[in-house]
Design a protein that fits this description.
By secondary structure, this protein is an alpha+beta fold. It has 4 helices and 9 strands. The longest helix is centred in the last third of the chain and has 16 residues. The protein starts with 10 loop residues before the first strand and ends in a 6-residue tail after the last helix.
């Protein structure tokens, strides 16, 4: 996610719809097409929203008229707050931030509390979480509905989990409304998530098909 401070400089405050005392981390997401400056930001993704930013009354619209860039904070059913001994027991998703570091106009930060222990080095984090692991094996796919390139990475980890990373091109989204997926999941849950995303995202279906065809034409046939 682009963490340019200019993207959130018109924020006027943060509204938490749940207490953050028991949340070691929350997922931070920038909704670029919110329909209001200060009302609740609708959340269509998986999991549940626990907070959102509000903008100054005179905050300008974004690229589309009457659409505003606002942050949403959310958690998923397999996050540490919901499953303390789950897949994020001693790590955090790539979009995870400590809610105590969040303020108006300030991006959240990853802390030891959010991570669940001492912060890892780049090499250990690469092996433990989805922030950098799958991005070492990304494939690029062109999108048919917008200019730009999407990036997809799926890789097994030494812990027996599957590291998933999908980053849409600018202006596009997946079937559930997200722009980025970064998850560390058991194989059965990973299979279910990937199948659902592909089934509900026409541009991704076409992009993956074209990628496979290009590989065939280049002589990269399945062995």
């Amino acid at each position: 996610m682009n963490r340019n401070p200019d993207l959130i400089r018109h924020e006027d405050g943060i509204v938490w719809t749940e207490g953050i005392g028991n949340l070691d981390y929350v997922r931070e997401y920038l909704e670029v097409a919110a329909g209001t400056r200060r009302g609740p930001v609708r959340w269509n993704g998986h999991g549940r929203r626990v907070g959102y930013s509000v903008l100054k009354p005179d905050a300008p619209a974004g690229e589309a008229p009457f659409r505003f860039a606002r942050r949403v904070f959310w958690i998923k059913e397999h996050d540490r707050s919901e499953q303390p001994d789950g897949v994020y027991k001693d790590c955090a998703p790539s979009e995870g931030v400590d809610p105590r570091t969040v303020a108006a106009g300030v991006w959240g930060e990853l802390t030891e509390r959010a991570w669940g222990g001492p912060l890892p080095t780049a090499s250990t984090r690469s092996a433990a979480t989805s922030k950098s692991g799958p991005q070492q094996n990304l494939i690029k796919v062109g999108e048919s509905l917008t200019s730009g390139t999407a990036f997809i990475g799926v890789a097994p980890t030494k812990q027996g989990l599957v590291d998933i990373y999908i980053d849409c091109a600018s202006g596009s989204q997946l079937g559930d409304g997200r722009h980025v997926i970064s998850e560390l999941l058991p194989p059965d849950q990973a299979c279910e998530l990937l199948t659902t995303i592909i089934k509900t995202t026409p541009w991704l279906q076409e992009a993956l098909a074209l990628s496979v065809v290009d590989g065939w034409l280049a002589g990269d046939f399945p062995k």
